[in-house]
Amino acid sequence: MLRYKLNKIKNTLDVIMGFVLVIGFFCSILFTNLIIESCNELYTNSFKPFLKNRVLIKSKFMKQSILLFIIGLSFLHCSKAEDDNVIDFPNLEIDVRVGDVTINYVNPEISPRDNYMVWIELDTINGVSGKVWQCGINPETGDLIPSNGKGFSPFTSNIYARPADWGLDKLGVFYVGASTQGQIKLVRPTSPTTATVTDIAMPIDNKRRVFYPSQLPNENKRFVIYILNDVINGFSANYPQNTKFQLRLLDLDNPTNDYLIEEQPSLYPLIVPMDIIVPRWIKGSSYITYGYKDSNGVVQAKQFNALNPTAAAIPITNDLANKVDGNTVLNTLNGDQYFISGINATNTAYVYKRTSFEAMFFQDEIITPTTINLKTPALNQSHEPFIFNSQLYSAFQINNDGNNFSQTAFNRPGEIWLTTLDNPNQQMWLLNEFDSTLNVSEPEAYIGKDKVWIFYSAAKLDGTQSYINRKYQLRRCEAPFN
Q1: pLDDT score, position 463
Q2: Which domains does the chain carry?
Q3: What is the CA radius of gyration of the chain?
């Protein structure tokens, strides 16, 4: 991202002033020399004895002029110098609102290829149910196709059973979610405005949530992981009726294969570990990660292999830090794997690294952005790692501390950041234009033709409304290397 605008304006003015100063010195030299020469012509004959003094006066003046000229050049040179310690700030012209300002854009998810977005238009009255929409993205401009993002709506869902991410197989991209009644559906886009919709032959059950489909680009095989509540759908910390939660693996090609991965008891009003480290795929592989508590009560990550569904999940982290919303990325260039997770609900995240699926993750890097806008920065989370031009990056959010997850993530002002990953010269960029009246969340990276954009959600903070009843803006920033 470009340097902060005020800094740019200052540098530009300094350069201009440097040029003005140099030109002024030249003009002073010429003008003064003309005066001296005129005086010399007038007085030389009458004041010949003082000719020597005239030369001395001119000589002294020239020395002073040369000295001033050198000072001017030095000033001009210094005006061009940049302070390497200046934080990269957003260029406000490229943090823009996209879509229709009257529409509520919730939880946009971008496909790993083929330029699609899926999102849900929640009813702001009940804050739970809404229509699922898909649209296209122009790879050259980052604009939505159509411009309001309403290309095709395959079904009506709710915030819990909406498509949580995209799937990928040999045939292309797809997404999975459930209707408000609980019918699981697989949707495969054929264009921004068309798709094929398939009902999965499973018993209808409206207590399933967080559907994450597999991304196996070289396989003609499809899975989805989901959480099953025992009494009522919803986040574990919000509904005391539930007593347990099951993480399950469904074989979409043979739905009779519906495997239990792990069951966790309710900790109401606390969050269960599988809601702290959300179940996600290590994209490009058959492995998933999710959260559990170790014997010391620390939230750690486990790993499960969908191709060996009868084998138990195994721990893959074991340090002393509680992990929040960990996400993974597989570097397809060398096979290295990274687990990026917020730590202890602070504004710091750790990057863990390993070189094989059989290994544990070990800490490799620390990510702590330097904010000047947030007084109590917290909850480094929602990491969206990606590869661009053979380099690893991750977009993420931090927000002012709200004393619990929901209040911090969705009810406080915040910042959207971008960082390098596994780079000895770590660099971070603040992407969004800060607004103290605006909550920001859920960054999503989109790699276009030769540019990267980061989409994110934003909502005006309103003390009279719950965050689930607000209208969410869809916003987009350009990456700094565009």
Answers
A1: 84
A2: 316-481 (2.115.10.20)
A3: 30
